[in-house]
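idk why but the lab printer keeps eating my pages so im just putting this in chat instead. protein + magnesium ion:
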Amino acid sequence: MFKKILCAVDGSEHSLRSVEVASEMAEKFGATLTILTVAKPMKLSPKLKEFFQSESLMGEATYVLEPMTEGVLDEAKKRAKSRETVRVETVVLEGQPARTICDYIKRTKVDCAVIGSRGLGDLEAALLGSVSHKVTSLADCTVVVVK
Ligand SMILES: Nc1ncnc2c1ncn2[C@@H]1O[C@H](COP(=O)(O)OP(=O)(O)OP(=O)(O)O)[C@@H](O)[C@H]1O
Ligand SMILES: [Mg+2]
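predcted complex ->
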């Protein structure tokens, strides 16, 4: 039924649970699993920028992000690893999360996207985070929202 499953992770417990669901689905359907995280370019205060420049750490804008992004993907891969038969690839993109996820789905013909209902935000009143709300509305594939 599904051949290409995408799981979008932001490091939150919800998104890591969605990796477990996605990897089990990938195993059942014989699908490939892509774990995608969208990194936001960091906004630095002028003082912090000065510090990074003086330490020559500003060469690439992604320098500050990388360790964090890597951590998110490592954790996600660990959760997916219990399913040894599943082929897992990881992708890092930069930009606005919901739009970037939807563009990736369209561009690479993802059949099914698996995401958490909530993420790292702390808006307890909302049932769905803004990224899960937008992706379920705008993605042109089946979307599974993991609670
Ligand atoms: N930067 C991201 N990269 C990849 N997936 C993401 C990203 N942000 C969110 N997601 C996915 O969307 C799910 C829901 O997160 P979302 O950001 O919508 O909730 P939230 O952080 O609680 O709310 P908000 O961001 O609106 O304050 C996550 O569990 C994850 O699957
Ligand atoms: Mg969020």
